[in-house]
Amino acid sequence: MAGKVFFSVSMSLDGFIAPESPKDLMGPQWMELQQWIFPTRFMRENLKLGEGGEEGRDNDIVRETHLRTGASVMGKRMFDAGEHAWPEEAPFHTPVFVVTHEKRDPWERPGGTTFHFVNDGIQAALDQAREAAGDRDVRIAGGGATILEYLNAGLIDEFSIALSPVLFGSGIRLFEGVDAGRVALEPVRAEPTQRVTHLTYAVLER
Ligand SMILES: NC(=O)c1ccc[n+]([C@@H]2O[C@H](COP(=O)([O-])OP(=O)(O)OC[C@H]3O[C@@H](n4cnc5c(N)ncnc54)[C@H](OP(=O)(O)O)[C@@H]3O)[C@@H](O)[C@H]2O)c1
């Protein structure tokens, strides 16, 4: 049975998922946006940040999200931001399909992550990701532009947002340009923790 197509991101209370410029990644607002995820035991292990870390519901959610994912799709800007920031053992441990205009050979990392560069659009990338994922789900990892393409094309089944108590004021807005006439949402779950509110929605066609 084919899995779901989903995305799962951290979003500021005013709707942004990243600063406009990659050079501001790691700035104070970005760290506040991600402050629920970096201290978790799972993420510390996965990003090779060291042993230890917090257990509890945030940690469980990060681990469950990772385990359900059989393949990921991402945009080239997210890849560019991660290429030098991820550890050598990139944190996906599955195939990753990068939607891009750039032609490049697959880039295999130790630990099971291979980045494949797909030049013929979002549907082709998703088809390859579904094939690679088998029974597991496909995660549209980001960033905002790529998630929106999939959402507007009616290709997302479900998404989760970790709503962080931080205001960006400007940056990459997750739902900028959404086809609101097409996308309807059904609440699945809302779960506050000490650090963020986890919101999950099923996507329906209007
Ligand atoms: N808050 C979170 O949880 C979260 C999660 C993920 C990412 N992010 C952040 O999001 C930011 C990146 O997001 P973004 O919206 O700027 O960019 P993006 O979606 O990562 O990448 C957009 C780029 O991907 C390529 N692309 C997308 N669709 C394509 C298509 N149909 N055909 C060919 N190429 C296509 C194009 O690059 P080329 O033309 O150069 O190939 C395009 O400029 C990063 O800063 C990242 O850290 C945040």
Q: What does the secondary structure layout of this molecule look like, with pairings?
A:
Elements lengths: L4 E8 L3 E3 L9 H6 L7 H6 L10 H12 E7 H8 L11 E5 L7 E2 L5 E5 L2 H13 L3 E6 L1 H9 L5 E7 L7 E2 L9 E10 L4 E9 L1
Parallel strand pairs: 1-7, 1-8, 3-4, 3-7, 4-6
Antiparallel strand pairs: 2-9, 5-6, 8-11, 10-11
The structure holds NADP nicotinamide-adenine-dinucleotide phosphate.
What does the model show?
The protein is of the alpha/beta class and 206 residues long. It has one domain (5-205): Dihydrofolate Reductase, subunit A, CATH 3.40.430. The chain is built from 6 helices and 11 strands. Strands 5-6-4-3-7-1-8-11-10 form a 9-stranded mixed beta sheet. The chain starts with a strand and ends with a strand. 31% of the residues are buried. It binds NADP nicotinamide-adenine-dinucleotide phosphate. NADP nicotinamide-adenine-dinucleotide phosphate binds next to strand 1, strand 2, strand 3, helix 4 and helix 5.
